[in-house]
Amino acid sequence: GDSNLRRLAHERLQVLLDKGQQPERTYFNMGMLAMQDRDISKAEHYFRKTLQLKANFDAALFNLALVLYETNRPLEALPFLQKLNQKHLKGLVLLGNIYFNHMNNYTAAKQCYESILQQDPYHVPAMHNLCAVHYQLKELEAAELCLLRATTIAPKESYIQHHLELVREHRKKTTHKNTQKPSSTVAFCNKPDDDCISVTPINSSILRYSP
């Protein structure tokens, strides 16, 4: 079975490690095997060992950040994501979501999503999350226009249509006074989740990255 194959792969990697052959790559591959086995502590250990040997190993930086994020340590993940190459789109998605969900730093989140869209204008999660940033900053017209564009790119995504309807409803109810732009640390949405626009959740099985 797959578990036996992974055990065999781990044994072979250990042989390579004992011989001192490409230790940073070997540690990284051992970390990936540990992730497949859902052994989070081992995965974290091996990715950290990788980075001790090669500090700019993008795949190890990202996967260590993902492990930390999945174990409810998003702020510990932050410095590893900040070291990534700015062309690492999955890293930018995760970084933006941490800024948005855990730090209420919508300006920094916006920069992440805009950077993704500059490289991939049809990146639906980044586009939707940028719309969510506009919403949190009370930029309701921008949020509506953003969501309209998102619906043209991903017409089958019902959550985008739902959020577009929420924005339109808020625009109808909002007066000029409370549409003034707040500081980037003030959240607009304090209602139950169904009435809020949040960023697209992280799907770790899609995000995991191996070069």
TrEMBL record:
The keyword Transmembrane applies. GO terms for cellular component: endoplasmic reticulum. Keywords: Membrane, TPR repeat, Transmembrane. GO terms for molecular function: mannosyltransferase activity. It comes from Parasteatoda tepidariorum (Common house spider). TPR repeats lie at residues 24-57. This is Transmembrane and TPR repeat-containing protein. InterPro entries: TPR-like_helical_dom_sf, TPR_rpt. GO terms for biological process: protein O-linked glycosylation via mannose. SMART domains: TPR.
